[in-house]
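Reopening this one. Same input as before:
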Amino acid sequence: MATVINMPRLSDTMEEGVVAKWLVKKGDTISEGDILAEIETDKATMEFESFYEGVLLHIGIEEGETAPVDQLLAIIGEEGEDISGLLNGNAAAQVEAPKEEKVEESASSSATTTTIPEGVEVITMPRLSDTMEEGTVATWLKKVGDTVEEGDILAEIETDKATMEFESFYNGTLLYIGIEEGQTAPVDVLLAIIGPAGTDVSGLKDGVPAASAPTAKESAPAKEEKVETVAVSSGSSSSAGGRIFASPLAKKIAADKGIDLSQVKGTGENGRIVKKDVETFTPSAATPSSPKTATATPAIQTFTPAGEEGFEEVKNSQMRKAIARGLSASKFTAPHYYLTIEVDMDNAISSRKLINELPDTKVSFNDMVVKACAMALRKHPQVNTTWKDDVTVYNKHISVGVAVAVPDGLVVPVLPFTDRMNIMEIDTAVRDLATRARDKKLTPQEMSGSTFTVSNLGMFGIQEFTSIINQPNSAILSVGAIVKKPVVKNDQVVVGNTMKVTLACDHRTVDGATGAQFLQTLKQYLENPVTMLA
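Same output, byte for byte:
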């Protein structure tokens, strides 16, 4: 019976996807675990594999096309099978339901007959994010027979958002590994078994309810082993057809670092390239690609006569679409207004110079602004609120988000409990978060939970600007450049250093007077930095 495959939801915010590349074509024979296509979401480009066997009978979304989640992506079935009814949408809902019922029935049955020996702990694929439906074991840090203690890191697991360390909550011996490195499996599938050394767990391997679910995916490595034998024997991680077998995270890291994956030897299952292979890769002094790079001929631009209009359409990435949706929702939902003040930065410049003369210390003006905001929020709790239709939430904690520009858009890593940090601690944390943001290594938790946001474009020479509120915050501070100019002090015109800051407020929670009082307090802290050193 033919199987309908729809556009998958590969991230929590994904509403539509772009088929970046089809790795198979109509008429090809498909095996379980084969990569069908690379799909671009709002967060990353991810490989999408088949859970079914058969012939690819229909492609519903061509390369480069965008389609919403759950739209017909492809149909797999028997060669020559009539799929006209499926193309008309009449049988789509009837295709996979029986199969799922059968799996769940089998799982239920096994659950009632399986007895777990005393002292044995069955560990399943954990749900490491709110939207995670499946995970890939990037690296096992323990092997069967190893002694495991509570708190030991068992494995690194790739989720839909990040690669995260998974630790053990039990003591014992690692008796069984259910998902090998490089394999992908749904949440709650048997991952490992820990218990007393020598315990017979053969019954658990077949009887744990979750173990019956990944049948399709666990058969994939057998197919990969057959395909990759030639590649591994020649010291490469690509198949005979030229495609390189690597985890999605390894591909992203390689792209960011400009590493040619064909030069990387994989240590994952059957030679698959995983995260650690890319991170530890050291290029040789002269790789085959080096001469090409040195002698590459630059592309010749077409001459455009004066006065002739030209246009080019570039498809919006899924990240850009997600940013557009979020900012549009904020701008058109929250009634924004803006307040601007000018701050005398002479004392801040002097104080920063003294602080940075201390050993191993380097504080930026942005660190001072973040600290001043955190202290001002403590005195003006109305600015540290969140609007809901029926209530206004007063956040008792203060966590400042710092906007960071990355190649694909904008992210806002968060400093939890910022008001309890000193300026040096803020500097260390911001540098670490900003670096990992640009390397795409932030976890979802590190980008959530802000109660206020700071956006600084002063380093680009921007003297004054306004920002869109980062909901669910009630305000965001826009920080401009420090400018040397004539100022009046003690009725005399002298050379001074000033900086403009603009507060964007949500009028539903922060009235004009409240916003103005917040800025006055912020100004006092910045003009008297000694008050922030406690």
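So the earlier flakiness isn't reproducible anymore. For the record, The chain has 14 helices and 26 strands.
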